[in-house]
Amino acid sequence: MTTDLSIRQIAHALGISRTVVATTIRAFQASGLEYPTMDTMPDSLLIQAMAGEGVQEKSARYQELSQRFPAMVVELKEGSSAESVGAFLVKNLLESDYPPP
Q1: Which of 37, 16, 18, 36 shows the shortest CA–CA distance to 26?
Q2: Which of 22, 23, 15 is nearest to 51 (CA)?
Q3: Residues 22, 6: Cα–Cα separation, whole Å
Q4: N or C: which end of the chain has fewer CB within 10 A?
């Protein structure tokens, strides 16, 4: 896989971090897949092929929070200012770790 775009340019175009782009490219290269094969694979098999040995089990904390993701999405859409997002994060992520007395 080659491109004339830098990792920085790809990240900017997709609105993701350079680390995610670099990690994904390394995973693709390590998988041994080629684009024609990859293009016809279902996403689930592609993810599995690219995951390799680096896949980690989801922590208990992630599993607990992921059950609340749908409600979090709704709540975040209601208020989009930086202040409301900060308050949301404190409420939803820290409150369960440090409940009020």
Answers
A1: 18
A2: 23
A3: 10
A4: C
pLDDT given for residue 27 in this prediction: 83
Distance between CA 57 and CA 27 in Å, rounded?
17
Report pTM.
0.46
Structural contact between residues 49 and 33, judged by C-beta atoms closer than 8 angstroms? yes
Dist CA 47 CA 25 (whole Å): 13
- Alpha-carbon distance 32 to 34, whole Å? 7
- Phi then psi for residue 3, to 5 deg, are -150, 155
Strands of 4-61, DSSP E: none
